[in-house]
Amino acid sequence: ATCAGTASSARLAWWAAALSLAAAASVALGFYLLWREYRRTLQLAEVAQKPQAERQERRLLDANRQALARSQMLIDGALDAVVTIDAQGRIVGWNAQAEPVFGRTTEEALGQDMAELIVPPQHRQAHRQGMARYLSDRQARSLGRRVEVEGLRSDGTVFPMELSIVSTEQDGVPFFSAYIRDLSEQMRAFMRAYGH
Predict the structure, then answer these.
(1) Alpha carbon separation from 13 to 17, 19, 23 (Å, rounded)
(2) What is d(CA 151, CA 139) in angstroms, rounded to the nearest whole number?
(3) Could you please report the per-residue DSSP string of 116-185?
(4) What is the structure's pLDDT at 168?
(5) pTM of the predicted protein model
C-alpha cells in the first residue's frame, strides 16, 4: 500500500508540475500575444499617423511657398534693386529691378559671387575685408546707412549708386540685403545743370 501510495503521490506531483508548467506556458504565451498585439497596434497607429503627418507637412510647405511668393512679389515691386547675399558672398536674391541696373537676369546672378559680379575690381578687396570683419565681430560699420559707392554693370561700365544694407539671420546664419538705387541719371542731370 505504501508503494501504491508513493506511486500515486508521484503521479499527482507529476500532474501538478505538468499543470503548473502548462499554466506558466499559457501565461507566457498570453503575454507574448499581448505584446505582439501591442506592437501591431503601435504600427497601425504609426501608419495611420503618417498620412496625417505628411498632409500637415504638405500644408506647411504650401504655406511656406505662398509666403515666399508673397515676399518675392513685394521685393520685385520695390522701386529699388534688391540684392541679397549669404555669409559666403553668394547671391541668393535678385529682384526684377536689379536686372536693368546691372544688366543681368536673375538666373545669371543667383549663386554667383556678388563681389565678382557687381563690385568694381578696385573695390572688391575692401568689400571682402568689410564682410570678414563683420562676420568675425558683428560690428556694423555701414549697415543701415545710405552710402554712395560704385557698381559694375555686365558690360563693364562703372556707375554711381546709393545703397543701404540690412542684415538678417536665419537659424543663426547671416544674410545681407542691399537696397540699391542707380544714381547715373541724377549725376547726368547735375552735370547738365552745372555745365560740366
Answers:
(1) 6, 10, 15
(2) 24
(3) HHHS-HHHHHHHHHHHHHHHHH---SSBTSEEEEEEE-TTS-EEEEEEEEEEEEETTEEEEEEEEEE-HH
(4) 85
(5) 0.61
